[in-house]
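Here we describe the complex-level prediction in full. Unlike the single-chain runs in Section 2.1, the two entities below were treated as one system.
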Amino acid sequence: MPVVTIERKVLEKNDGYAARNREALRRNDVFSFNLVSSPGSGKTSLLEKTLGQLAGKLKVAVIEGDIQTDIDAQRVAKFGVPAIQIVTNGGCHLDAQLVNEAMSRLDLSALDLLIIENVGNLVCPANFDLGEAIKVVVVSVTEGEEKPLKYPAMFHRASVLIINKIDLAPYVSCKVQDLKENALRINPLLTVFETSCTTEVGLADWTNWLIFQSLNFRVDPDKRSELLTELRPC
Amino acid sequence: MHEMSLARNILEIVQSYAPARVKSVRIRVGALSAVMPESLKFSFDVIREGTAASEAILLIDHVPVRCLCRKCINEFSADTLGFICPQCFGTDVATLSGNELDVVELELEE
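The structure predicted for the assembly as a whole is:
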């Protein structure tokens, strides 16, 4: 029987679009992150708080991925930032082609930061590179300490872990330290933030880090110093 | 169920090679690729209908996660301590394998 050797990536088409997206973001000095978590971890609330704190500091746009409805894009648009909704109609993840189409509707040259909120799912989005600079994974304390061990692929590929709803930890007997240690076993290089959108604890640490990363992403040192001057009061 | 979109990608790649009937498709799946083999096989069986691969079997080679500690050059499996070196507890660790998701080869009918 003739055997043909192929050696091609299953996701080569997606990865091609991801490379194009990454190149466009790089060319325009736009830092970006892909926000991933299971449903109900508080991604959109965290996003709202983040946008509130970044107002006047960074020029942000949001791409929202949901299986149905544009509720999230409406929530985000209230902050006066460009928000593009992708409805996947049952699809359990965003892919780079969908993001490419959404990005074509944004003026990248006017942005500092692009936030892509993925469909709530800790499994499927792990495979699909969207062209983002980093993945940020959110886990809420109500989900339990073992989450990183149960979904290692996502935690392994993420650069940042946000442990959300931290104010609820005492009520759900979540050992935050164990949760953190489990995540660091899967990915020792994770940068970890602990946040609550109710008490607002930890949010400033997260958004300051984000501002720093976004400015650092810029290649033009003049622009960087100009922005840092503007930001000095915070 | 992203296995369905993965199966579609596999079929697209297979079809670009195969005017002839395809007997089997060998793929490589790393343990970190978040793929359920049974679900992928099922998805492939559903979408292969009516194509040159309509009777093709999906053969899956599983690849375990292997790591290399950049500090003490120890090669280890991620099964025990995760991505921390069990020899020196270093955290500067390279992933050598486990992320694979490749179409490797096709077996064609004569």
